[in-house]
Amino acid sequence: MKILMPIGGALDHENPHIMREFVERSGGAQARIVILPQASALAETGSHYVHQCLSLGAGQVISLEFRQRHAADTTENLDAIEEASGIFFTGGAQMRITQLIGGTRLADALYRAYLRGCVIAGTSAGASVLSKTMIAYGKSGPTPRERIVQCSPGLGFTDRFVFDQHFRQRDRWGRLIYVVCTHPGVLGIGIDEDTAAIIEDEQHIRVYGKGAVTILDGRTISESNVAEVEAGRPVAVGHLTAHVLTAGCTYDCVNGNAHITVVPSLSDE
Amino acid sequence: MKILMPIGGALDHENPHIMREFVERSGGAQARIVILPQASALAETGSHYVHQCLSLGAGQVISLEFRQRHAADTTENLDAIEEASGIFFTGGAQMRITQLIGGTRLADALYRAYLRGCVIAGTSAGASVLSKTMIAYGKSGPTPRERIVQCSPGLGFTDRFVFDQHFRQRDRWGRLIYVVCTHPGVLGIGIDEDTAAIIEDEQHIRVYGKGAVTILDGRTISESNVAEVEAGRPVAVGHLTAHVLTAGCTYDCVNGNAHITVVPSLSDE
């Protein structure tokens, strides 16, 4: 099974329930986990996650610390990805990941790892890069507006979704609606902090964590003026479908029909 | 063989050499061509191309004239795409295409048509939509700058390339360089007016027409500050590879190694 695990940032390090789920899905004591800290400007980010995953029982964990394109494609790095059962992209700035790794042999190896069932997780910037077109940066606010969001090519494990993170905390409804209006075939997935959307085979989504996952399905849009609106003006859209799902809820998207299971509020604490 | 045919806009209607190539590659007298005029705000765009393709010897040509999402998925439209040997997206505004067709069953049918060998052509806006991440709009100028370009999800036949059009005429080096810096695995294809890049199996590119096709290969980039630069400032980049290819030149991209054939200038007139 192919598994993507985008996380909304601001992981709770006191109660690392999301990272525990990642370690368990990667194989627990048998896990071979690779951390990719390139999004972060801090030198210690990689080793922080290495220690955390080890403390949560992961068998092997390494961080690939390169910060130059020419250092991406070493035999050591490529072998680590080939053997990984779980890969984790840290937070920071998403374009640091794509400009360093995009177009390398390592990028090809990462995609092969995804296809063979290696869990591909990422938090904040690390969640954004998982899609073919990613939100690179943008503005906050509830209303979709022209130029509210800047997209660029993501690392690209899937073209079914576009991910936004810190969703409720940074007030990002407007920018995610905008992207879905531009292409209603792309499901918008807005993920709150310390929350994960676990996506199996690009089809079945399970919500995990403290906050909500907001799913914007544009396939029902009757019309919008997104192609015409200019100069920062608000965008009009009709019949956008939105789901706000909390821990334990699931979303199934088969042949364009969504099946939602909403469960009562759960406490992880 | 899968064939994409992005065209740089401003087709010469006196000497329709590009459209003739499209009709011939679609099967000539046996061709079943479908025009998709949704990018255009002009009611007569579809019928113009229908008449032109018929005058160039195409067997059957129709234009699908819907302008509402709910009108995309008629049996008539879906059957036309299933039977098409050539599909042509007209110019206009690329987001009109993606917001109308993205997420419809017609979009799925278009992708299946591409996979079975139907020629997928588009001019100007119609060229932009061919990629997974597309340039939606932007500014002119030779220097890549933060916010010079706005991307959004394209109709998405390929994630290997991003296409820009009216390339030399509208001075678009800066914005195409910017996109390639953000993800150096995406080949930037800048197409001049009345010029086509014919792409076979996402690998072999042949240039056809009056102008040039500019290919920006970011895989050689040593470093850039695209992830750090702010507020409209210029982006620095080292070791970007550029090719400027004219009619008859070919570009082969196998396993990351480009093979270029440059031929002496040809005249189409």
Automatic annotation (TrEMBL), chains A, B:
Q: Which SUPFAM superfamilies match?
A: Class I glutamine amidotransferase-like (SSF52317)
One Pfam family, please name it: Peptidase_S51
Classify the source by domain of life: Bacteria
Q: Which sites are catalytic?
A: 124 (charge relay system), 166 (charge relay system), 193 (charge relay system)
The processes (GO biological process) annotated in the record are: proteolysis
Picking any one GO molecular function of the record gives: peptidyl-dipeptidase activity
Name the top EC class: hydrolase
Keywords annotated in UniProt: Hydrolase, Protease, Serine protease
Protein EC: 3.4.15.6
Q: Which family does it belong to?
A: Belongs to the peptidase S51 family.
Q: What is this protein called?
A: Cyanophycinase
Q: What is the native source organism of this protein?
A: Chloroflexus aurantiacus (strain ATCC 29366 / DSM 635 / J-10-fl)
